[in-house]
Design a protein that fits this description.
The complex is a heterodimer of chains A (109) and B (114). Helix content of chain A is 0%, strand content 57%. Chain A has 109 residues and is mainly beta. In chain A, strands 2, 4, 5, 9, 10 and 11 form a six-stranded mixed β-sheet that branches. A five-stranded antiparallel β-sheet of chain A has the order 1-3-8-7-6, with no helix packed on it. Chain A is globular, with a radius of gyration of 13 Å. With 114 residues, chain B is mainly beta. Helix content of chain B is 0%, strand content 50%. In chain B, strands 2, 4, 5, 6, 9, 10 and 11 form a seven-stranded mixed β-sheet that branches. Chain B has a four-stranded antiparallel β-sheet with strand order 1-3-8-7, with no helix packed on it. In chain B, a hairpin with a 6-residue loop joins strand 7 and strand 8. Classes of the chains: A mainly beta (109), B mainly beta (114).
Chain lengths: 109, 114
């Protein structure tokens, strides 16, 4: 059974702070990992992909991957109220992408 | 910017009826997917489609469901004999020519089964 786990939240951070979102996955075979953002009532939108152990930075976002621990994280620096959304971790298994339940982030002005 | 378009945005149907949800993927993309999201729950994989055939499908995607790409642009999901529990948001997604897994989602079709 291929599982992707996330804390459901809500995670509340003040504006300007760093938000840290975590994800664990069950199957060591996985090689591709993704973070999506989903605003309420909208479709998921890709933020970042990560394939290798370590950090990958894109603007205010940093994805971190630790395959030995089966752990993926997303850091959002200088959080803005517009970052308030549900963040979905997704893990690729062949042509099947398994999504976690999402973490709801609330950035307080 | 290229986008995935889905129609209808909302469909209401009676239990037992058939529905067809339509998607136009991004034009040069080769990998297509259907996902569903029941209200308040996670995004669930239904099926992936490549080179005019199903490449993977989930346990949810049973004989009640079918997909096709009838004309080289549209990608459809047919749900036969709808049930109450089929009520959900259905998302179409497409992936590029290399199948990197970076999915572009449409806005979704909300299906309500009464």
């Amino acid at each position: 059974q291929k599982e992707v786990e996330q804390n459901s939240g809500p995670l509340s951070v003040p504006e300007g702070a760093i938000a840290s979102l975590n994800c664990t996955y069950s199957d060591r075979v996985s090689q591709s990992f993704f973070w999506y953002r989903q605003y309420s009532g909208k479709s998921p939108e890709l933020i970042m992909s990560i394939y290798s152990n370590g950090d990958k930075e894109d603007g205010r976002f940093t994805a971190q991957l630790n395959k030995a621990s089966q752990y993926v994280s997303l850091l959002i620096r200088d959080s803005q109220p517009s970052d308030s959304a549900t963040y979905l971790c997704a893990v690729r298994y062949g042509q099947n992408f398994v999504f976690g339940p999402g973490t709801r982030l609330s950035v307080l002005p | 910017e290229p986008e995935v378009t889905q129609t209808p945005s909302h469909q209401v149907t009676q239990m037992g009826q058939e529905v067809i949800l339509r998607c136009v993927p991004i034009s040069n993309h080769l990998y297509f997917y259907w996902y569903r999201q029941i209200l308040g729950q996670k995004v669930e994989f239904l099926v992936s489609f490549y080179n005019n055939e199903i490449s993977e499908k989930s346990e949810i995607f049973d004989d009640q469901f079918s997909v096709e790409r009838p004309d080289g642009s549209n990608f459809t999901l047919k749900i036969r004999s709808t049930k109450l529990e089929d009520s959900a948001m259905y998302f179409c997604a497409s992936d590029g020519t290399r199948g990197t897994g970076e999915l572009f989602f449409g806005e979704g079709s909300r299906l309500t089964v009464l």
